[in-house]
Specification:
heterodimer; A: alpha+beta; Ubiquitin-like (UB roll); 5-stranded mixed β-sheet; 6 helices; B: about 725 residues; alpha+beta; Aldehyde Oxidoreductase, domain 4; 3 domains; 7-stranded mixed β-sheet; 6-stranded mixed β-sheet; binds FE2/S2 (inorganic) cluster
């Protein structure tokens, strides 16, 4: 149901999107997912459930993985949003291709964004990335195609590609 | 030359998918498109009296389409004509569409749908398929004289009976159903683009709905976010709805289901009850089998006759037996129609025969591995339909492979007497196995009747384009076709492109179902490529320059081939005798589980599987099919519940429709066995469905090993396991 989210009059939103300043008018409770996909044409972020259960809509807000279907637009006011269309996902993208972590691809952008958030949090916190950590970090991202083995391997390869904790 | 087959090429569709550039139906920019939706029945069976329009809504803002607005037949084209596109007088399941609405934006669409209220007088609903009496289809398979055997068994023989049940299952492709339709253009052509497995099925459905020639309907597949059978027949429904709305609105209309609607109304796996009577000699030899298969077809026929057929053809398992009777029925109920889902009836009957084998082994004090190996079909044996297996039989190879990997042949199964009392806590482990086969390609004369066609054509720049109706739904069609074409043409994979499946531009290769794309369509592709390669010759220069030279000299750069069945295949559909499938894939699974004694949650920690695929054209893709399919089977075995109350699916949101996550998935140990099939491309057989068949019986056998209670129903949820434990406590 979209109606309830769109009822209030639009407000002015200012935030950083994929490294560039962004300004637009949107109802405050409009889902960030719709702002990205419909208002801004960034359709790399997918919708699999609309209720926070599948992870296909994962984006980064100030570096943390969040579900764009649950975030109202007003919450990104003044913050930094990064989607799969943004820069800096190359190690994860390559790892998913190399490990065979892509099949139908509908979960892939969300998986890649969540993987990057995990790899960067490991580096930040000085945690050595391991299989268990990858499985925990990606537990909110559903994939019905792969059985996850190749996805977990991709996450570990991405972590290796980004190097040791800083 | 074989450089690409057997190696791992990069997926041609990979870069667009990892960058978010791949265009799925919800992503397609269509100027001026409206949004479409449906008014649906809220009850399982009833007489439609009228549809009330609540006052206060401005109907000029939307278009509404009813059954009377269907220009052709109000029939959802498939095997039988029993399903209307829009129900008129009677509704037969919750969610059945009655009216369609299109609106310029989603809030307006939602408001309009909420302002339309169907007034339906309830009729008695049939919601228990085990007592339902309206039979949609029946199948009988007979071999030898089982009746005589059961009546006068040889000395020492014992009779075993077992009833095995499986519940429904949701495909849960992560991208919901959807398509975009345009109103007829100047020459009367209706165009639909969308998420689907079978564009030529959709074309046929549109032609019937609009009363037009199939050529006047053009259907183009967009990047498709998973199907697993769920996008075999159902996209025709969405396409007809969107196209009817586009016609009425005079503009393009997009229908993309939200998850809630998708879960409530789309077809799911057929629930089953399978009863076995098995006569077994003291040494474990199967003497006679009697199998009764019952499936819940739901409210309409859809694909049920074919699902039942495949269920029955796999009901006696991969075992030798001289005397077999299989009786199958699919009955109508007032549930949402059941439909195609990976495995297509075989997972249900595979579950039953494999659990029956465990029961026999336990009673005869034989080892379950040894019992299976003793009775396994081998080269030269005949199946239940009398098909003699001449070629490509990996049965013993897969059994021996899982034994070598796991030691399952030496495992001592927990005897019920040794079972842990339910008052214990902590975790208990168990092991279980299964052995199974899956017929690749269409049943019987299906491929012969279908005559799948594929073309290979040279582009002006000298690259070769594969033109096939087969779709990429994630399983790797594009990569597999690229590898087959490159090796058969003798060129680099970069010289091959695979055309988008567009019914106006590619021949009908038959649907992307039944594990047939690689084996059947791939073999046609290979032969077409070999003819083209012979035409343009192997002279000096790279492929593209030779191809360009051939075109410049006026050569014909298009070769289209049609599938021809391998010689010697004979099938009698009336008696179900003969060669049911061109060949079979073979596999064995070993599941290792841990059961939490406090919560009775089952954790599948490892799944070891060996799979005979003939030839792995792309080994990594094959492994992806195996692990992906096996996880769906594991989910079905223990956590994927689909239930209904008064005919309404209860798991109607992703919060309640549970499927395995990274944390639920086991470690997979995959052995690929290659017993080449002479008529498959480079020896390949089908692999798409096989991995779905064996997971559930292996997991339930492992649960039985861990807890010592008989697990006879899928899924084995904690609630069901608790009931079994309590029952044991009461009776011991
Ligand atoms: S669409 Fe946001 S979690 Fe599923
Ligand atoms: S690749 Fe299809 S859902 Fe993950």
């Amino acid at each position: 149901m979209r109606g309830p989210f769109e009822a209030a009059p639009p407000i002015e939103l200012t935030f950083t999107l994929n490294g560039r300043p962004q300004q637009l008018q949107a109802p405050p409770l409009r889902r960030l997912l719709d702002v990205l996909r419909e208002d801004l044409g960034l359709t790399g972020t997918k919708e699999g459930c609309g209720e926070g259960e599948c992870g296909a809509c994962t984006v980064l807000v100030d570096g943390a993985a969040v579900l764009a279907c649950l975030v109202p637009a007003c919450q990104v006011q003044g913050r930094s949003v990064v989607t799969i269309e943004g820069a800096g996902f190359e190690p994860e993208q390559q790892a998913f291709l190399d490990a065979g972590g892509v099949q139908c691809g509908i979960c892939t952008p969300g998986m890649i964004v969540a993987t990057r958030a995990w790899v960067e949090s490991c580096r930040r916190d000085g945690v050595t990335p391991d299989e268990r950590g990858a499985r925990d970090a990606l537990a909110g991202n559903l994939c019905r195609c792969t059985g996850y083995g190749a996805i977990v391997e991709a996450a570990l390869r991405a972590a290796a590609a980004r190097g040791e904790p800083t | 030359m074989s450089a690409c087959v057997g190696s791992d090429l990069g997926r041609p569709d990979g870069p667009a998918k990892v960058s978010g550039r791949a265009v799925y139906v919800a992503d397609l920019a269509v100027a001026g498109a409206w949004h479409g939706g449906a008014v649906r029945s809220t009850i399982a069976h009833g007489r439609v009296l009228r549809i009330e329009r609540k006052p206060g809504f401005d109907w000029r803002r939307v278009v509404v389409v009813g059954p009377g607005d269907v220009p052709g037949d109000n029939v959802q084209e498939l095997l039988s004509d029993d399903q209307p596109i829009l129900a008129e007088r009677v509704v037969r399941h919750v969610g059945e569409p009655l009216l369609l609405v299109a609106a310029p934006d989603l809030p307006t669409l939602e408001a309009a749908l909420a302002a339309l209220r169907p007034i339906v007088e309830p009729l008695p609903a049939e919601l228990d398929f085990e007592s339902a009496t309206r039979v949609l289809h029946e199948v009988s398979i007979d071999k030898g004289d089982p009746g005589a055997r059961f009546d006068s068994p040889p000395p020492g023989a014992r009779l075993f009976e077992g009833t095995w049940r499986t519940d429904s299952q949701e495909q849960l492709y992560v991208e919901p159903q959807g398509c975009v339709a345009w109103p007829a253009d100047a020459d009367g052509t209706v165009v639909v683009r969308g998420s689907m497995q079978c564009p030529h099925y959709v074309r046929k459905a549109l032609a019937r709905c609009f009363g037009i020639a199939p050529e006047r309907a053009r259907v183009v597949q967009l990047t498709t976010g998973g199907g697993f059978g769920g996008k075999e027949e159902y996209p025709s429904v969405v396409a007809c709805h969107a196209a009817l709305l586009a016609r009425a609105a005079g503009r393009p209309v997009r229908i993309v289901y939200d998850r809630h609607e998708d879960l409530l109304v789309t077809p799911k796996r057929h629930p089953s009850r399978v009863h076995h009577r098995t006569l077994v000699a003291a040494d474990g030899t199967l003497l006679a089998m009697d199998v009764d298969v019952l499936l819940d077809g739901g409210a309409y026929t859809t694909l049920s006759p074919v699902v039942l057929s495949r269920a029955c053809l796999h009901a006696s398992g991969p075992y030798r037996c001289e005397h077999v009777a299989i009786r199958g029925r699919v009955v109508a109920t007032n549930h949402v129609p059941s439909g195609a889902f990976r495995g297509f009836g075989a997972p249900q009957t595979c579950f039953a025969i494999e659990r029956q084998m465990d029961r026999i082994a336990r009673a005869l004090d034989l080892h379950p591995f040894a019992l299976r190996r003793h009775n396994a079909l081998r080269l030269g044996d005949a199946t239940a339909t009398g098909q003699v297996l001449h070629d490509s039989v990996g049965s013993l190879a897969v059994l021996d492979a899982v034994a070598a990997r796991t030691g399952i042949d030496r495992h001592r199964w927990c005897a019920p007497a040794m079972a842990v009392p339910s008052s214990n806590s902590g975790r208990v482990r168990g092991l279980g196995m299964s052995f199974f086969f899956h017929g690749a390609g269409f049943t019987g004369s299906g491929e012969e009747l279908l005559k799948g066609r594929v073309a290979i054509r040279l582009l002006p720049d000298g690259r070769a384009e594969v033109a096939a109706g087969s779709t990429e739904i994630g399983q790797g069609t594009t990569t597999v076709f690229t590898a087959i074409a490159a090796d058969a043409l003798g060129c680099d994979p970069g010289d091959v492109v695979v055309a988008v499946p567009d019914t106006a531009a590619v021949p009908d290769s038959g649907p992307t179902v039944a594990s047939r794309t690689c084996m059947v369509v791939g073999s046609v592709l290979a032969s077409a490529c070999r003819e083209l390669a012979a035409r343009i010759g192997g002279a000096a220069g790279d492929f593209r320059s030779r191809a360009r030279a051939w075109l410049a000299a006026g050569g014909d750069g298009i070769v289209e081939h049609v599938y021809g069945s391998p010689p010697g295949l004979v099938w009698d559909q009336a008696t179900y005798r003969g060669d049911a499938y061109p060949c079979y894939g073979w596999a064995a699974d070993v599941a290792e589980v841990e059961v939490d004694l406090d919560t009775l949650e089952v954790d599948v920690v490892r799944l070891t599987t060996a799979v005979d695929v003939g030839k792995a054209i792309q080994p990594r893709l094959v492994e992806g099919q195996i692990t992906g399919g096996a996880l769906q089977a594991i989910g079905w075995a223990q956590c994927e519940v689909v239930s209904s109350r008064d005919g309404r699916v209860q798991q109607d949101r992703l919060a309640t429709c549970i499927v395995p996550t990274t944390k639920d998935a086991p470690r997979f140990d995959v052995t690929i066995v290659e017993q080449p099939y002479a008529h498959g491309p480079f020896g390949a057989k089908g692999v798409g469905e096989l991995p779905m068949d064996g997971g559930a019986p292996a997991v339930l056998a492992a649960i039985e090993d861990a807890l010592g209670v008989p697990a006879d129903r899928v899924p084995a949820t904690p609630e069901r396991l608790l009931a079994l434990l309590e029952q044991r406590e009461r009776t011991s």
